[in-house]
Amino acid sequence: MPILQPIGRVFLNFLAATGRLSLFTVRATSHCARPPLYPRLVLRQMVEIGYYSLPVVGLTTIFTGMVLALQTNSSFSSVNAESATATIVVFAITRELAPVLAGLMVAGRIGAAMAAEIATMRVTEQIDAMSTLSTNPFKYLIAPRLIAGLTMLPILVLVGDIIGVFGGYLIAVYQLDFNAANYLAQTWRYVETLGVVSGLVKAAVFGFIVSLMGCYHGYHSSGGAQGVGAATTNSVVSASILILGANYLITALFFGVG
Amino acid sequence: MSNAGEMGATDLAKSDRPKICMRGVDVAFGPKKVLQGLDLDVGVGESVVIIGGSGVGKSVALKCVLGLVEPDAGSIEVDGEEVIGLAGRALDRVNAKIGMLFQSAALFDSLQVWENVAFGLIQGKRMEREAARQKAGEKLAQVGLGSDVAELWPSELSGGMRKRVGLARAIATDPEIIFFDEPTTGLDPIMGDVIDKLIVECVRELGATALSITHDMTSARRIADRVAMLHEGRIIWTGPVATIDHSGNEYVEQFIHGSAEGPIQMQVRR
Questions:
Q1: Residue B193: strand pairing partners
Q2: Which residue, B1, B7, B19, is CA-closest to B177?
Q3: A233–B contact, CB cutoff 8 A
Q4: Beta-carbon separation of A128 and B63 below 8 A
Q5: Strand partners, B199
Q6: Which ipTM did the prediction report?
Q7: What pLDDT band is residue B183 in, cutting at 50, 70 and 90?
Q8: If exposure means fewest CB atoms within 10 Å of the residue's CB, which of B54, B187, B191, B204 is most exposed?
Q9: What pLDDT does B184 receive?
Q10: pLDDT of residue B176
Q11: Which residues of A touch B124 (CB under 8 A)?
Q12: DSSP string, chain B
């Protein structure tokens, strides 16, 4: 059956890729927990991921908060429920939009850069050179990026939460004529611990996914410039899909039962 | 007397034992068989050059010794220790004896020149950064580069300078064995001569064992004590460099004369 062959090949390739990724994840994670660690490299990655991504995440969340306030007000006015604007903005930003959008933006900015850098090191034999100099590339290249991704994305999302809610406030107060004190009081009333914590947990998972995909596709790249390009594309696409899938699973874990 | 005799025999056995011993090494990438029963010994303090056409597996042979490529079959010993299957610290311990100059120098783009040279000292040998920096300066001077180069980035170097920095990095840890992967490829003839002379000097000063791969016969004649010809995955001829012009092997003769006519047929589509 010739039609079954390509399906079987795709399925087997999928299983092989899943196995390779699983082994890579276990190996990389184990190096995050075992000394020696490289604090200087971890710090450099934290600055790269956290500090330099702030403008992108800030702009994304402020515009999202502004749009959300406009849309909520516009939609809910038909049922005289405009007063729910602050509640909707704070719920949507802290629970979903800040972590998911920050994750996707960082996947595009940092995941792609990681994949390109490590893939270039692979095709120019820099990773081989590192091994010959008695340095484990997992420990030197990958563990610092995973640790930085895992720790910095929650901080970015926390800042994004504040900026996103502030974006909603700006529109509500200065364009939709909400009372500033009432809007802030309502926002504060609906900032719930579970919502914020779930968003931060998501951010940590997304940060890990972004770094892992960037490192994995970079580390396994081959074929010169074309391979570097493919690693970059695959890193962003796979991280984005995994972020959306993980978002559903974590949401179900926090809010799906009861 | 008998003790002295036994000691003498033991010493002889030690000195007779090759520094690197490869036996029956097979490597295949998918259906493509790259190495097919490679046998090669490299004696202590000897400089062996593997010659052969592009794509015959010269670089793969070196990478097998370094543990970067896992052979499908065979045995590779360094100082009598089997290296196939080694991983982690055991592999690091063996690799600590080896320095390597890569074909493209493989300098780390994100590190300055001195950090590249000192990388093995800081990461592998846990040397303090200042002491490692000083030693990197000494090694750069040994390959004819001034202290001003130490602060540059790899992207600011010419091809010849990159090779020299790569050589300084390869010898920075005073290794017992040094691998040279196409040391003169991409260099002009004068710079090629400079690099070859540096290689000979560095190997002699360190008393190291050298294993090089090249298809540049001029370079091979300068740096080799012994030459081995790799063809279709195995060594088909080996002998002292002085005898290469009278090898009596038609493959070697075709290769050293760079002739298209002979037993080695390049696949050229017309």
A1: none
A2: B19
A3: no
A4: yes
A5: none
A6: 0.84
A7: confident
A8: B54
A9: 86
A10: 92
A11: 133-135
A12: -HHHHHHHHHHHHHHHS-SEEEEEEEEEETTEEEEEEEEEEE-TT-EEEEE--TTSSHHHHHHHHTTSS--SEEEEEETTEE-TT--HHHHHHHHTTEEEE-TT----TTS-HHHHHHHIIIIIS---HHHHHHHHHHHHHHTT--HHHHTS-GGGS-HHHHHHHHHHHHHTT--SEEEEESTTTTS-HHHHHHHHHHHHHHHHHHT-EEEEEES-HHHHHHH-SEEEEEETTEEEEEEEGGGGGG---HHHHHHHHT-SSSS-------
pLDDT in tens, B59-114: 999 999 999 999 999 999 999 899 998 888 888 888 889 999 998 889 999 999 99
What phi and psi, each to the nearest 5 degrees, are found at residue B177? Answer: -130, 140
Tokens of B197: 């002379």
Tokens of A209: 């996914």
> Which of A210, A248, A233, A245 has its CA nearest to residue A106?
A210
Query: Who has greater pLDDT, B38 or B8?
Result: B38
Task: Report which residue type is found at B18.
Answer: P
Of A143, A111, A117, nearest to A240 by C-alpha is A111
- Taking the domains of chain A in order of start, what are their residue ranges? 37-255
Q: Do B106 and A120 touch (CB under 8 A)?
A: no
Q: How far apart are CA B237 and CA B48, in angstroms?
A: 13
End-to-end alpha-carbon separation of chain B, Å? 72
Instruction: State the amino acid at position A191 in one-letter form.
Output: V
Place of tokens 């590249």: B116
Reading the block at residue B105, the tokens are: 């120098």
Tokens of A120: 């270039």
Nearest CA in chain B to A133: B120
Distance CA B176, CA B202 (A): 11
| B254/chain A closest Cα distance in angstroms | 31
Distance from CA of B68 to the nearest CA of A (A): 7
